[in-house]
User: What shape does this take?
Amino acid sequence: METKRKPKWLNKKLDYESMKEMGSMLRSLNLHTVCEDAKCPNMGECFRNRTATFMILGEICTRNCRFCAIPGGKPTPVDPEEQKHLAEAALKLNLSHVVITSVTRDYLPDGGATQFAECIKEIRKVLTNSSIEVLIPDFKGDKKALDIVIKAKPEIINHNVETVPSLYKIARPMANYKQSLEVLNYVKSQDPDIYTKSGIMLGLGEKENEVLQLFDDLIEYNCDMLTIGQYLPPSHDHASLKEYVAPEVFENYKTTGLEKGFKYVASGPYVRSSYNALEGIKEVKSK
Assistant: This one.
């Protein structure tokens, strides 16, 4: 049965003034953020702090993940100036850590890998001392596409496994758990200096033993960093919420994850893949 009443620890308020200001700047550059399109509950906080996760390759996805608010359908043409606009926005915000993700565009020959590389290249031109994190799709496991992103040398390559394998048919029907693990492993095998990162949601009906096995799988496949957050359905048409997970459970998973060997674990109801991402890169570098 779906839990309908949000608990007291899920009461974050949106900062509409900051959202309007940041949104205006992004629209002027024809840019999108996953913060807006995925209806992230941290959007007001992050925009107030002048941070955002840029979403490239448009705003229409070619997959049908049932946890995600980003719409599916026929994508619009890729903006040929997108990488320059993104670099301009990153410079205006004076970002010390830039996070880039994308919709999935399976029909492109390289899945959009070249666009990731071009964005990294343009940001390096204007922010020479900033670190860059990319949250990539699986590129259907295409190693040539992955090589394009790896050779661009972002500091972090993130690919989310999202949930335990038993729930893939419910949450990620067009994805493959093993393939996602292999994406992370391949990145590390090609460039050990790049930090690998992944993220999962809780509350879809996963069991504790499944989560712990997922931790072991990620460690085995050379994942350095992990984020764990609460699943919040974007609408009644999305995958059903099974439970609100208590903050102490998130804390326990963080402790366990670090004990198992992750270099960094962010775990809490409001944690998302790129939430406080600068803190993550600082922590792993300090180690």
